Task: structure prediction
Amino acid sequence: MKQKMMNRMDEEQINAGLMRFLDASPNAYYAVRNMCEMLTEAGFEELREEAPWKLKKGGSYYVTRNGSALISFRIPEDEIAGYQIMASHSDSPSFKIKPNAEIDACGNYTVLNTEKYGGMLCGTWFDRPLSAAGRVAVETEQGVEMRLVNLDQDLLIIPSLAIHMNREANDGYKFNAQKDLLPLSGELASKGAFMKLVAEAAGTTPEKILDTDLFLYNRMPAARIGTEGEFIASGRLDDLQCAYASLLGIMQAKPAKSLAVQCVFDNEEVGSMTKQGAAATFLRDTLRRINIVLGRSEEEILRSPSSSFMVSADNAHAVHPNYPEKADPTNRPAMNKGIVIKYSANQKYTTDAAAGAVFRRICDQAAVPYQTFANRSDMLGGSTLGNISQSQLSLNTVDIGLPQLAMHSSYELAGAKDTAWLAAAAVQLFSSSVRADGAQLILE
Ligand code: ZN
Result:
């Protein structure tokens, strides 16, 4: 009960922080940089994968890969009992700007050549101010330097075709990514200006830019919606809402028996098969390295995963007010009703009875409500991080998320109560440990 009251008091502060984080994180590079800044401020020490590590018992650290994936951790004061992990992802569906992007359009305009990154709802990208952000490789006297750039202005737009020229537009339309979805960047005379803006933002000239990873983003800032402000609308709630809650969790966690680990992977929206994705060796290598530096034996390292627990946190579908028939008859979560535990018989979600029970107890201990999700049996669902990361590191895992609507829209919708609950559950997860006893899991 005490915890519940604390959550309610923190809620407004957490939502304000979340909305600032969403606005300041137009893509994975910025999300990771912003999280690193918050971790540094909270006393976590930065480690580099390429440099030797010195770790202290009781210490707090973080390491990044590719500038777009992050692992932060807190080392127990005593022997490591196991790992308590919460994983989420930093990327969201968007459009990536191709090389040689500026195209002449009908002798009058310049449009940018882009391609889809992930599976977005295309219609939500039309007729609104867009901008571009990401990173560029800049040639300098000292070699090639990677710099983040955010053009941070109302700059681009993908105009719809008028209803008069497509009378069937309201009856369903199939978008062609090479034809329908290219953003207008200016008149033809302004060709070259886009790369000049990018170079300016990077503090260089266009000739010095060797390569780019630039993505579009919706300029609409995060907003409170509803007569009582019950909801939060923003781009990238999937999955920055979970990433932010897990960050608050690890920053607030008390020293515990287990190694507390927060990881945020990139490239979930395109299958996770990159060096910074959930299918990479990043988590396995980092955990192994922590053990080696702390002088643990090979056998101790091999024993640890069985007495460990991972929460794969990726947003979930809430029941939609206009489409209740799309939800499962008995597992239909709603926004502002708590954390969603996801189930799938074909193990697209890793949750099983043993892991589900542990997570329900963690929520109970944190006085956090939870609900359950399963796809309708006649509908295919999405997949997420949990089962993909198993191929590198096999752990007791539960798949969860926060309930939201409009998933993969450029402007999504979630509950204003749920982030604080996930943060409280994360604190509880990181402060506890899970011990294996054969096929049983004991929460301590
Ligand atoms: Zn997601």
In short: The longest helix spans residues 2-23.
